[in-house]
Amino acid sequence: MYSSTILLPFLFAYLATSSSLSLFGSSQTVLDDKLDVPGKNPLQFCQNTSDYSLVIQNVDLTPNPPKPGHKLLIEAQGTFTEDVEEGAYINLSVKYGLITLIKQTADLCDQMKEVDEECPLSGSKIIKKEVDIPKEVPPGKYSVLADVYAKDDAPITCLQSTVHF
User: Fold this and answer.
1) How many CB atoms lie within 10 A of CB 29?
2) Total-model pTM
3) Are the beta carbons of 138 and 121 closer than 8 angstroms?
4) Residue 22 near residue 101, CB atoms below 8 Å
5) CA-atom Rg of the chain in angstroms
6) pLDDT tens digit string along 120-157?
7) φ/ψ of residue 87, rounded to 5
8) Paired strand residues for 139
9) CB-based contacts of 28: which residues, under 8 Å, 6+ apart?
10) In 3-state terms, what secondary structure has residue 53?
């Protein structure tokens, strides 16, 4: 089994463990059930997935939703329809209510090393990662946006979520 949803779990794992980059961002798009990411998670695709080169089959978060002071287990499965090479990047945004906490671009291949993956990314993938959510997370509404692109700016995937702590 392989993890192409590598991006999704990685994004949550990275958000939970990093103070400099995060996945919680904002988007003003209208969401519907057709955009829900398969599995037990609060994630949605930003738009129709037909243009994405990552087909996410399943993402499970335990617990769902994530809870401060608890471990978060991320299990994801997906397939890359095109190879992802060095130079791919993630545009990450995190908001706490209306306040933008983080708006940053990160190298995707560097970040994938956190889940024991390396570029080029290709084929089917399975990712399993456990991270600690700090108990000091202030209560409130967090919005996350992770927009992922190949080095030629072709869309790999785009995920968004709102989590209430």
Assistant:
1) 14
2) 0.79
3) no
4) yes
5) 14
6) 999 999 999 999 999 999 999 999 999 999 999 999 99
7) 105, -10
8) none
9) none
10) coil
pLDDT tens-digit series, residues 92-123: 999 999 999 999 999 999 999 999 999 999 99
> β-pairing, 141-149 with 155-164?
antiparallel
Taking only the tens place, the pLDDT of each residue in 26-62 is 344 444 568 999 999 999 999 999 999 999 999 999 9
Give the number of other CB atoms < 10 A from CB of residue 54: 24
110 vs 60: CA distance, rounded Å: 23
* DSSP E strand stretches across the chain: 43-45, 54-62, 71-84, 89-96, 99-107, 121-132, 141-149, 155-164
Distance CA 77, CA 30 (A): 26
Q: Find, among 10, 6, 26, the residue nearest to 72 by Cα.
A: 10
Instruction: Give yes or no for a contact between 100 and 30, defined as CB atoms under 8 angstroms apart.
Output: no
Q: Which residues of 137-160 are buried (b: 16+ CB within 10 A; e: fewer)?
A: beeeebbbbbbbbbeeeebbbbbb
Per the DSSP assignment, residues forming a β-bridge with 78 are: 56, 125
Residues in the chain: 165
Please check whether residue 76 is in contact with residue 41, taking contact to mean a CB–CB distance below 8 angstroms: no
User: Please, are residues 54 and 148 in contact by the beta-carbon 8 Å criterion?
Assistant: yes
